[in-house]
Input
Amino acid sequence: MRNFETVVIVVEGAGPTGGAERVAFETVEILSAQGIPVRIISSAEAIEEKYLSLPGVTGFALNLPAAWKKFFSKNRILSYPLRQKDKSLIPIYQDALKGLDPHQTVVHIHGFHSHFSHLIISTALEMGFRTHLHAHDYGYICPNTTLFDYPKNRICDLYPLSSDCQSCACIDANDIQLKNFRFRRAQQAFSNEKLHERLTSIVCPSPFAREIMAKTLGNLVNLRVLRCPVQPAATERQDPAASQTYLWIGRLTAEKNADVALQAASEAGITLTVVGDGPLRQSLQSAYPSHHFLGWKSPEEVTELQQSARCLVMSSGWYETASLVVLESLAAGIPCIIGNRSAATSWLTNNENGLTFENGSVESLKQALEKTKSDELISSLSQNAFTRYWKNPCSSENYYRDLLEVYNLP
Output
């Protein structure tokens, strides 16, 4: 049973180009398959025809520029104050929502930082729609979206949107104007308009992410956990003990801490297979030439690599919000090694279905890697990983069930 007729999916993209976009468009597919009408509101120039051709799906492609470009000109903030709403956007959003009955429509927002701004949230709320914000990152409370101090290469423990937060050059000292823009925009949504108190819910992809958000948002917000649908690397348990492939998957940027994994593996006498690309690839490849750097691979190629891995190493220095690649691997019985301050701790228990190490510590990760040289340990972790995941899988069916529970909130 449901108490709504239509769902609006708000997404910053034309198709599944990133994690948030992937979940948004999978949601469109799942809802369409259930016979629920969906309206996509995208910031892109056009929406992929694949989704517009689905039964019951319509779309508005608004072709919005990146939000900060409206406020910067030749590296200077334009004259009008950021705290004032850019009222020209409001009629655009109202038009995209026009014709829908607020009492029979749910608005599900999968991103607003880069193009929409918080105005898409406030417009939907002021028009009377039940509105859910999907927190694919920590951008509602953090100006750089990750709660990570990039120059110091560590998790930021400052209270979000405080005076200390405002003065911290957490992106880069040369990007202080961008930081100020993001801070003031977040402050407008959080402190001035208190959108979090008006939202029907803020949806978090893991219990860990919910706890992090709750530290700032408190008890006045309906914070819900909604596990994202996962495409498992395999539905049958693989045999990781028969492999010597240690897999690292991700974007090669500072917060992912690939250097920690590469250094720890080198000291443990292990070769990492690195899947991914990014601004640090060249320097990392030069510093660690004995490891395999494969660059970006297709989803099918990544799945094959996961199936044949001994274990997955995730060294990310920031919290993450769900770590879907960990869930994909655990589903196939591939043990994972993760940092102890990662959202993946929602899915993994040390020495049960994987191993944890102290975030950012080369020595701690090295010790964990040394343990995985035991075939007996790998086999035990693999069996536990597979059994535990499939007791309550992150399937499309379970996602739809939990999604209905969220959408039915009054």
Summary: The CA atoms of residues 262 and 351 lie 22 Å apart. Residues 73-84 have pLDDT under 50 and may be disordered. The chain has 15 helices and 17 strands. The longest strand covers residues 6-11.
